[in-house]
Write a structure and sequence with these properties.
Elements: H1 4-31, H2 35-51, H3 59-82, H4 86-102, H5 108-124, H6 134-154, H7 163-180, H8 185-193, H9 211-234, H10 243-265, H11 274-290, H12 300-328, H13 348-358, H14 365-386, H15 393-402, H16 407-435, H17 439-460, H18 462-480, H19 486-508, H20 514-530, H21 533-540, H22 554-573, H23 585-605, H24 616-639, H25 669-687
Helix pairs in contact: 1-2, 1-6, 1-17, 2-5, 2-6, 3-4, 3-5, 3-6, 4-5, 4-14, 5-15, 7-9, 7-10, 8-9, 9-12, 10-11, 10-12, 11-12, 14-15, 14-19, 15-19, 16-18, 16-19, 17-18, 20-22, 20-23, 20-24, 21-23, 21-24, 22-23, 23-25, 24-25
Length: 708
């Protein structure tokens, strides 16, 4: 059920589109007597304002529409010229369909405007081949788009908080928690959950490939991790003999406050490197205490708490550096970019090239969707052209609007669309028969039909949307040229044809959507990140921070991005009730992040033994690291079907002595905390896979779609 605010937004959108379409259509048809120009002025607002899902409000959405106008004019021109032959139009549709669908790699704005841009090529590429009408088509398209832009500015949706403002609010909460410790853990975790991109309006998500968006997105993940770490720390008893942690937490609070102020006001960011210096001083004090005379070293419980404090300080340090990058394009302080900030020193064109090339793989769900869409549209254009279907662009429109990422979801949409079109065709046919050639009646009906159809249809679902749109089409075309009841018949045939083509493409191209891909992506992520555990462990078992070779994390970062994209689509397809065998994909992402963060943080700040450890502590650490890598690989094999699901695994073998029974000088407490935490995470993931996943024969459909 839609909320009142959602209904109000839908009503505003329907008014904007209906007013813009009518304001262009009526004068051009009845005053200027330019039917082709009027047709494009009518469909331009529908394509850009209704078929497209451009995020934002008011000026932001108007800006996107204006930037989309030149590509729209180019596509209409290309379609007009390629309409000369069916094969030329099909090849053009294949290329245009792929490029516009693949534009989703550029973020929500590009993805949202792509369907409308597809329609401009689709409208123009059908017979009759009439290059002499190109000027009228482009003029009508421009008029309709500009009228919609004006309506967006005059009747905007309410503005929503920007991502920077949300980050600033979360940082202020983190600052209070770090300074006073009086913020409840559930408040901290709730604040962090509010930064999940799935809960952020698409217009405000930092999804671009440039340095600023990448830095803000990384800052958001770090703030979420910082809030969760503060919540965990708040749930543990404080140590009276740990004044150093209090001081470092104060520095974290100061940094969070400074970063929040910068994000709100846009002034200069905090002085870079301040927190890192505080962390190094904190670590030096830890080393001095941990390697002190026997009997005077602090309890291991205190050192473990300090390890948690140092980990959350590292999260805050990443916020500091990413805020710096967002402000200047480069971190200007002491924290030079490395694998974590690999994008900071690359030019924008290389960042975009990496984003595009990184998704040119059949393992990318964005690439899969683009291929599926392009094949479906090209096949529809071939069928419509070969069979010489009247108003054949409706075939492609059906493929474009009814296609989903899974066969099951496509079939549900097709069933409802065909039913809705059947009812709409009957009503439209009766209307044409009853009214006859009286254009004034159709002119009077078009505006209210658009207003009702664009508002009520989305409220009631796919069937109502398709049925009411059929009525809008009939009243519009009846004014441009004489029509009979066979117009409804033609639309019904075209929609059914497009639906069949969409279903066939769904069956042949990744019918299960992201369900299978998310398994592969998560498996590769675990294998790649699991390989970081042993090198990191060896680095922490080495007393000196000399020129040792640290693990390379950039491949893991790339795998993490592919896995996050697959998970995002999967959550948009599968309801919580139908998750396979209880697979906890979010837990996989969390443990992969923990492995990555440990590989970055521990070699730089981890507490090290005074001499190369031998005996039980070293044996335990190396054995636990090897076990974790093997376990990550075993889980990966289970996910891809290489191994049957096993019984729930246990944590890595604990130290033979009691938790506080070993000397801090003989083993890094930070390493022990990290390995033990990873063990618990992986054990829970393995326990969620105790039943083998159901067999998936080739072409098997997914079990259903649901909301994120």
């Amino acid at each position: 059920m839609t909320t009142r605010s959602a209904r109000a937004a839908l009503l505003r959108r329907s008014v904007r589109v209906a007013v813009a379409a009518g304001a262009g259509f009526y004068p051009l048809l009845y005053v200027a007597d330019r039917p082709v120009m009027a047709l494009y002025a009518l469909f331009a607002p529908i394509a850009v304002g209704l078929l497209s899902s451009i995020p934002g409000s008011g000026r932001g959405r108007a800006s996107v529409m204006l930037r989309a106008l030149p590509p729209a004019l180019l596509l209409a021109t290309l379609g007009t010229l390629l309409a000369v032959e069916t094969w030329a139009a099909v090849c053009g549709m294949l290329a245009v369909g792929f490029l516009l669908a693949f534009a989703a790699v550029a973020g929500p704005r590009a993805a949202g405007s792509a369907p409308g841009l597809q329609l401009f090529y689709i409208l123009a590429c059908f017979p009759p081949y009439a290059p002499q009408t190109l000027g009228a088509r482009l003029t009508g398209l421009t008029v309709g788009t500009l009228l919609l832009v004006a309506c967006e500015l005059l009747l905007p949706d309410p503005a929503v908080p920007s991502y920077r403002e949300r980050l600033a609010g979360a940082l202020e909460t983190a600052a209070r928690a770090a300074a006073t410790g009086e913020v409840a853990p559930q408040v901290l975790r709730g604040t962090g959950a509010g930064l999940r991109l799935s809960r952020i309006p698409p217009s405000e998500r930092p999804a671009g490939a440039g340095r600023t968006d990448r830095a803000l997105e990384q800052a958001g993940r770090s703030v979420r991790r910082l809030l969760d770490q503060l919540a965990t720390l708040a749930g543990t008893p404080s140590a009276a003999a740990d004044p150093a942690s209090v001081v470092l937490l104060g520095r974290v609070a100061e940094l969070c406050t400074a970063c929040a102020g910068f994000l709100r006001t846009g002034g200069g960011p905090p002085v870079a490197g301040v927190l890192e210096r505080a962390m190094r001083g904190f670590q030096s004090e830890r080393v001095r205490l941990a390697l002190g005379p026997p009997g005077r070293t602090p309890p291991t419980a205190v050192l473990r708490r300090q390890s948690h404090v140092l980990a959350l300080a590292e999260s805050a340090r990443i916020v500091e550096v990413t805020t710096d990058i967002a402000a200047h394009g480069l971190p200007v302080g002491a924290a030079a970019p490395h694998d974590q900030f690999w994008y900071a020193e690359l030019p924008t064109w290389r960042l975009w090239a990496r984003r595009v090339l990184g998704n040119v793989t059949f393992r990318s769900v964005l690439f899969q969707n683009a291929v599926r869409t392009a094949l479906g549209l090209a096949a529809a254009r071939l069928v419509a052209g070969s069979l010489d279907l009247a108003h054949g662009f409706w075939v492609l429109l059906a493929v474009l609007t009814l296609g989903r990422t899974t066969v099951a979801a496509t079939w549900q949409a097709v069933r409802r669309a065909v039913a809705g079109n059947a009812v709409g065709a009957l009503v439209a046919g009766a209307l044409v028969i009853g009214v006859g050639p009286h254009d004034d009646v159709y002119a009077a009906l078009l505006a209210p039909a658009m207003l009702v159809g664009f508002f009520v249809g989305p409220l009631l679902g796919t069937a109502a949307t398709q049925g009411l749109f059929t009525l809008v089409v009939a009243t519009a075309f009846a004014q441009i040229a004489p029509v009979t009841w066979r117009l409804s018949e033609a639309r019904m045939i075209d929609v059914v044809t497009g639906s069949v083509i969409g279903l066939l493409c769904g069956l042949l191209a990744w019918p299960a959507g992201a369900r299978r891909e998310v398994r592969h992506a998560m498996a590769e992520l675990l294998r790649t990140c699991g390989g970081l555990v042993r090198p990191t462990t060896e680095a922490l078992l080495t007393p000196s921070r000399g020129a040792q070779k640290l693990p390379q994390t950039l491949p893991s970062v790339h795998r993490l991005r592919l896995a996050e994209a697959a998970y995002s689509q999967y959550r948009s397809e599968s309801s919580a009730a139908s998750d396979e065998a209880g697979s906890d994909w979010h837990a996989v992402l969390i443990v992969a992040n923990d492995m990555l963060m440990g590989a970055h943080r521990l070699p730089r700040f981890g507490l090290r033994p005074s001499s190369a450890p031998t005996g039980t502590p070293a044996v335990w650490a190396r054995g636990a690291a090897a076990d974790l890598e093997v376990r990550a690989g075993r889980i990966a094999s289970m996910l891809t079907g290489g191994l049957p699901a096993a019984a729930p695994a246990t944590d890595p073998a604990p130290l033979p002595t009691a938790p506080d029974g070993y000397e801090p000088a003989s083993l890094s407490v930070d390493l022990e905390v990290w390995l033990t935490s990873l063990g618990r995470h992986l054990a829970r993931i393995e326990a969620s896979l105790t039943r083998p996943p159901p067999a998936e024969p080739p072409g098997a459909p997914a079990r259903g779609d649901g909301g994120r």
